[in-house]
Amino acid sequence: MITKEQKEKIELENKKIADNISHIKHRIVVFSGKGGVGKTMVSVNLSYGLHVHGYKTGILDADITGPNVPKMTGIQGEVHISGNKIIPQESHGIKVISMANLLPPDQAVIWRGPLRSKMLNQFLGDVEWGNLDYLIADLPPGTGDEILTIAQNMDPDMAIIVTTPQELSLIDSVRAISMAKKMNIPNIALIENMSGLICPECGHRIELFGIGGGKKQAEEMDIVFLGAIPINLEARKLADEGKPIVIENEEADISVTIFHIVKKIENMFNKNKKALMS
Ligand SMILES: Nc1ncnc2c1ncn2[C@@H]1O[C@H](COP(=O)(O)OP(=O)(O)OP(=O)(O)O)[C@@H](O)[C@H]1O
Ligand SMILES: [Mg+2]
């Protein structure tokens, strides 16, 4: 049983979050059943892709214990606090907030679920996001506390589930899709990542984790298939250096696919807007 004071405190916090994110037009959560499938890579490059298309964009690194967004966006140093607001950092024009920049670099975060959720609520309620067209939340793997907190308090209008074409990852993605459906997220979509590799030496295509399973999965579960992103060695190298491939090399196969996905996301929201206005 929670006390009246506790209830009031929760309501106050929820109102603060709702007010703070009310100037963000679209809120997207990126998650997966399995770890290491490319959620952060996808979140980061989609954010830059949307920025290149003229949208004001931010990334909320919702992976509290394993925050990788700063590494992939090249963000260093500590976050500034102004009054009672946390000022997000900026990378190539996008706003970023991550646990990695709130702690000394070698300090591990060993927090149980409720504490991680509290931090996420601060990211939503206390960060000076300002006016944004898109906020993308990069979640840790699995279907744990973070996704529940984000789904309840960020009120996302889109969930992107990332999978590789590998059977093991596809099985786990079913759980993630089911969770997004249970949480009534209006637009649910799947991206197949690490979908084939073109050998840079001979041009031969290697299907490292198989291919095509994502599209089939999306059709079976009646969700949108956004596209199949290939493995790209240059993208991996650049990611390690904190440079986004979509900005560094717009012509790379992976960048072309990501821009194609960005266009689909724009269209989805524009169509929804038209449907609402008609
Ligand atoms: N399409 C791709 N081509 C080349 N490298 C990729 C691709 N997608 C992801 N990677 C690389 O694979 C590694 C894992 O990707 P990433 O960190 O984005 O996965 P994740 O799902 O966020 O992992 P975690 O579950 O630990 O959060 C990274 O080194 C990333 O740069
Ligand atoms: Mg990650």
Describe what you observe in this structure.
- With about 280 residues, the protein is of the alpha/beta class.
- The chain has a single domain (about 35-275), classed as P-loop containing nucleotide triphosphate hydrolases (Rossmann fold, 3-Layer(aba) Sandwich).
- A hairpin with a 6-residue loop joins strand 10 and strand 11.
- About 45% of the residues lie in helices and about 20% in strands.
- The model has no long low-confidence stretch (mean pLDDT about 90).
- It is globular and about 65 Å long.
- The chain has an eight-stranded mixed sheet with strand order 5-6-2-7-1-8-9-12, with helices on both faces. It has a two-stranded antiparallel sheet with strand order 3-4. It has a two-stranded antiparallel ribbon with strand order 10-11.
- The chain has ten helices and twelve strands.
- The protein binds adenosine-5'-triphosphate and magnesium ion (MG).
- Adenosine-5'-triphosphate binds next to helix 2 and helix 8.
- Magnesium ion binds near residues 63, 68 and 138.
